[in-house]
Amino acid sequence: MRILTTISCFFAALCASPATENPALRIEWRDNILTISGPKLPGEKIDTLYLEACCRKGSTHRKWEETVIPHTTRLVSANADKTRIELESVVDGGVTVTHDIQARGDRVTFDLVIANTSDAPVDIEWAQPCMRVDGFTGKGKDDYMVNCFIFTESGPVMLNKTRRTEDAIYKGGQVYVPREINRDDVNPRPLSPDMPVNNLIGCISADGNWIVATAWDHTQELFQGIITCIHADFRIGGLAQKESKRVRGVVYVIPNDFKALLKRYAEDFPPSR
């Protein structure tokens, strides 16, 4: 009986290993693309346009070019084992952003300090990283939403099951706006009536075994884009003269378990008291 038990335990562990082994993530940044890679990562890598845009208030009902604030980003340092990157962004109007990005096993963390170096307030309301998930989901721009999810009052909901609209300046995609955010200050694409109850947006891998999910401690919107991308776009909320703010973010690559994801999220972003 002991031999049979030992054999059964061995095969159970063997079968479970592909879905539970730490993906040992690594990071690189080049030409405004942040690449997350790992030997167990579905699709081998996840690319994020980082950062795609910094945005002014009043963005929902006007042309995109009137919202975007020009910025440039440069690499400050990167360690040899590809687990830490430091970037610096310079945004028109006197704003600098320092980015400390670290790969920590099965997650990547972001620690940003956003500083207004000028003597005048700056209208910089939010910013967007654009995560491309075609390789991870194994799908294209017309069907990848069936693998993507947010959390609403009903729990985890796949994006093709959310209530969707089409009325917007630009067609395509869907924007999910947290309750506390002014709906006049988000992406000028269709706004869903469904409100997220936390800051997570993510996808399930093509084989169904993995989740990639991303969140920030302050979120302006969650967005399903038009180029097989998902966004957790972080909130800045404007800067007074000489003001600095800190925002933190994370990308998780974990086995497909929503309860485990929510537990990790609660540990990283505990509710304010």
SSE map:
Layout: H1 2-20, E1 26-30, E2 33-37, E3 45-55, E4 68-69, E5 71-78, E6 84-91, E7 95-104, E8 107-116, E9 126-132, H2 134-137, E10 148-152, E11 155-158, E12 174-176, E13 201-204, E14 210-216, E15 219-224, E16 229-235, E17 244-255, H3 258-268
pLDDT < 50 runs, ≥5 residues: 1-19
Fill in the CATH topology: Beta-galactosidase, Chain A, domain 5
Instruction: Name the strands of the widest sheet in spatial order.
Output: 5-6-7-8-17-14-13-10-11
Main sheet properties = 9 strands, antiparallel
Q: What is the helix/strand order?
A: HEEEEEEEEEHEEEEEEEEH
Radius of gyration: 20 Å
- The helix fraction, in percent, is 10-25%
Structural class from helices and strands? mainly beta
Explain this structure to me?
This protein has helices at about 1-20, 135, 260-270; strands at about 25-30, 35, 45-55, 70, 70-80, 85-90, 95-105, 105-115, 125-130, 150, 155-160, 175, 200-205, 210-215, 220-225, 230-235, 245-255. The protein is mainly beta. It has a single domain, classed as Beta-galactosidase, Chain A, domain 5. Strand 15 (about 220-225) and strand 16 form a beta hairpin. It is globular.
The gist of it:
The protein is 12% helix and 42% strand. With 273 residues, the chain is mostly beta strands.
